[in-house]
Amino acid sequence: MDQDICFGNIVVDCNDEQKLCRFYKQLLGWEKREMYGHPAVRNENGLVFLFIEDEEYVSPIWPDQLNKQQKQMHFDFQVEDVAVAVQKAETLGAVKAKSQFGGDHFVTMLDPAGHPFCFCAKE
């Protein structure tokens, strides 16, 4: 039987779901919500980041290193001014990754739980 399948939420594992929710709410300016008993943020188009705390969470290593926790995915955010976005993220608790490969096109950051994300210059 066929049924429509639509994209639901992006679930982000972490060691402190409230802290990571606050970070992304402040960074993106999205609405804070609670879903399924966990904190979440939602944009005006309905895209949701749902934060799930895991006691055994291990931050990914970026760039990848043999025998270390690998990243599964990362977020790319399009911004008008990469330097301004980086500065804002740093004031909220993110750090600029030590290794950078984007040149003038993007900067890789690590959120407070260690997930990599990039600020990409709008083209």
Which keywords apply here?
123 residues, alpha/beta, Signal recognition particle alu RNA binding heterodimer, srp9/1, 2,3-Dihydroxybiphenyl 1,2-Dioxygenase, domain 1, 2 domains, four-stranded mixed β-sheet, 8 strands, 18% helix
Draw up the topology in text.
Layout: E1 10-14, H1 17-28, E2 31-35, E3 38-42, E4 48-53, E5 75-79, H2 82-91, E6 95-96, E7 106-110, E8 116-121
Parallel strand pairs: 1-4, 5-8
Antiparallel strand pairs: 2-3, 3-4, 6-7, 7-8
Organism: Propionispira arboris
Pfam families: Glyoxalase_6 (PF18029)
Domain VOC: 6-122
**Biggest sheet architecture:** 4 strands, mixed
Task: Please count the beta strands (DSSP E, at least 2 residues each).
Answer: 8
Top-tier CATH class of the largest domain = Alpha Beta
Number of helices: 2
Whole-number total of structural domains = 2
Helical amount: 10-25%
Distance between the termini: 42 Å
Structural class: alpha/beta
Unreliably modeled segments: none
CATH names the topology of the largest domain as Signal recognition particle alu RNA binding heterodimer, srp9/1
Give me the side-by-side strand order of the main sheet.
Answer: 1-4-3-2
Q: Quickly give the CATH architecture of the largest domain.
A: 2-Layer Sandwich
N-to-C order of helices and strands: EHEEEEHEEE
Shape, please?
globular
- The average pLDDT is 91
Strand content: 25-35%
Radius of gyration, rounded? Answer: 15 Å
InterPro entries: Glyas_Bleomycin-R_OHBP_Dase, Glyoxalase_6, VOC_core
Organism: Propionispira arboris
Domain VOC: 6-122
Pfam families: Glyoxalase_6 (PF18029)
